[in-house]
């Protein structure tokens, strides 16, 4: 794990921080590939970094294929189709701000296809909620049973939780803190109370869904429930006259609190499940969990502030020369809230098209949320994930052929190495962000002579990425040394 983390940290640090070789590969130095991109707006792209390779490995082949399939539909079908039809119109067509005939593939994707992806993601999230209704009902039954019978002092130590009164006090204090925060957002008391009510209701309902989903399926549908929170909150607050920048911030504050509640509840259940196996006391775990949440909140806040100072999020802004971080989840939320709260016409046709695609995926039995995420994310983030998923598949097949303890060891080492790639890639990004705070920092501090030569730089990038794949393959298959 430490070895993979170190390799990925160094690899991603130099690729994303300095001009060593190209991070993105599109092969447009090949004349035929460039001609297809210019004439048909069909562009293949690939982000050759260790983090996404590890992520794809952990996802597995099926999930990474579905993710990439969404990207293929978006970039190889919808973008060329919009280009073919829209190039005959001389004026800009909403929501884009320039004529389609003057747009390249990435601009068409951001201007139109991205909104189709948002519609698909929101609809997939609703499907996830509907599938979880039985879990919600079960959670209410458990809560009702607890209130009916009261606190039982005769409970086994391993079944003892925090008292109901302690939980209620925590809810009241949290509600007061959220209400005070909302009151500072230049909104009326009515809007503040409505926002607080939305936060409490969504957190209460969705936290139970997240906790039960983690306990039963090992998956937390945070994305879908957060998207639904944004949509419903935007519609409700618009009815109370809140819009524009204040409305966007208000909605994002609600969504952020709800999203945090979902994430914490899912993780808490995982910890409690592990504690149950080890024989620990739930109440003791829950008390310590609060300190862990406080520490992680502080660490996460400082990390986000650091990244915000050194990077742009989502897409490049005019006149800003900072490097862009994809921030896919944040970009989805931004697109949703801007669509509803910007006082501009909502791209209902594009949202609706995405919703219908999600419906079709559900009818086909394909995980709609993964497919929709593939539609929304840039293709260069999907393709390396597919490579990681394929690598995982073939390694698992090889381990089945080996059988026994050795086969199990291969599978375990593969997951550990992939996790190390993810951790190292994230650390490399944080180190790069910290380095950019140094006055006078320049990406040209380390610049290879071939960086500006696309053919050489992109070819080397592809080769080094293949070398990473080889590292995962051979070190997963390598037999550990046993002391005699």
Structure description:
It is a single chain. The chain is 74% helix and 2% strand. The strands form two sheets. Strands 1-2 form a two-stranded antiparallel ribbon. Strands 3-4 form a two-stranded parallel ribbon. The longest helix has 35 residues, at 244-278. The model has no long low-confidence stretch (mean pLDDT 82). It has 484 residues and is mainly α. It is globular. The chain has two domains: 2-128 and 347-445 and 473-477, no CATH class; 153-312, no CATH class. Helix 4 runs antiparallel to helix 15, helix 6 packs across helix 8 (189-217) and helix 13 (348-363) packs antiparallel against helix 14. The protein is built from 17 helices and four strands.
Q: Separation of termini? A: 24 Å
Strand content: under 5%
Uncertain runs with pLDDT below 50, 5 residues or more? none
Radius of gyration over alpha carbons? Answer: 24 Å
Strand order of the largest sheet: 1-2
Question: Can you summarize this structure?
Answer:
This protein has 484 residues and is mostly helical. It has helices at residues 2-17, 31-40, 50-59, 61-86, 105-131, 133-149, 164-183, 189-217, 222-239, 244-278, 282-310, 328-341, 348-363, 368-376, 379-402, 404-436, 454-477; strands spanning 24-25, 46-47, 311-313, 323-325. The protein contains 17 helices and 4 strands.
């Amino acid at each position: 794990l430490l070895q993979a983390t170190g390799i990925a940290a160094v690899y991603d640090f130099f690729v994303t921080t300095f001009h060593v070789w190209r991070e993105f590969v599109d092969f447009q130095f090949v004349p035929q590939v460039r001609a297809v991109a210019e004439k048909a707006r069909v562009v293949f792209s690939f982000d050759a970094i260790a983090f996404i390779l590890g992520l794809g490995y952990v996802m597995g082949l099926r999930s990474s294929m579905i993710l990439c399939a969404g990207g293929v539909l978006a970039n190889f079908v919808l973008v060329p189709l919009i280009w073919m039809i829209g190039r005959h119109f001389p004026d800009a067509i909403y929501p884009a701000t320039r004529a389609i005939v003057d747009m390249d593939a990435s601009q068409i994707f951001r201007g139109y296809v991205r909104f189709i992806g948002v519609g698909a993601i929101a609809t997939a999230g609703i499907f996830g909620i509907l599938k979880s209704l039985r879990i919600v009902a079960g959670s209410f039954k458990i809560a009702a049973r607890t209130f009916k019978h009261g606190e039982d002092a005769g409970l086994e130590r391993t079944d003892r939780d925090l008292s109901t009164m302690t939980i209620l006090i925590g809810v009241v204090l949290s509600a007061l803190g959220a209400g005070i925060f909302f009151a500072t957002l230049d909104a009326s008391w009515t809007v503040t109370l409505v926002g607080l009510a939305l936060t409490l209701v969504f957190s209460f309902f969705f936290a139970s869904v997240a906790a039960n989903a983690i306990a039963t399926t090992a998956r937390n549908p945070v994305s879908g429930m957060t998207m639904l929170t944004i949509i419903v909150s935007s519609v409700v607050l618009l009815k109370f006259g809140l819009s524009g920048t204040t409305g966007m911030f208000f909605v994002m504050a609600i969504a952020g609190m709800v999203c945090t509640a979902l994430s914490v509840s899912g993780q808490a259940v995982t910890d409690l499940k592990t504690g149950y196996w080890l024989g620990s006391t739930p109440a003791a775990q829950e008390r310590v969990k609060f300190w862990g949440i406080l520490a992680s909140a502080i660490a996460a806040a400082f990390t986000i502030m650091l990244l915000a100072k050194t990077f742009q999020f989502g897409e490049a802004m005019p006149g800003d020369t900072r490097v862009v971080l994809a921030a896919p989840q944040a970009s989805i939320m931004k697109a949703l809230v801007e669509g509803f709260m910007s006082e501009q016409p909502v791209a209902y046709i594009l949202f609706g098209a995405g919703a219908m695609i999600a419906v079709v995926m559900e009818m086909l039995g394909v995980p709609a949320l993964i497919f929709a995420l593939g539609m929304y994310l840039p293709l260069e983030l999907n393709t390396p994930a597919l490579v990681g998923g394929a690598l995982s598949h073939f390694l698992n097949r090889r381990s089945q052929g080996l059988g026994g303890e050795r086969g199990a060891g291969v599978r375990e080492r593969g997951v550990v190495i992939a996790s190390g790639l993810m951790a190292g890639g994230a650390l490399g990004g944080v180190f790069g962000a910290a380095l950019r705070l140094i006055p006078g920092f320049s990406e040209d501090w380390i610049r290879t002579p071939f960086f500006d030569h696309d053919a050489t730089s992109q070819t080397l990038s592809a080769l080094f990425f293949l070398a990473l794949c080889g590292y995962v393959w051979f070190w997963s298959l390598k037999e550990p040394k046993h002391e005699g």
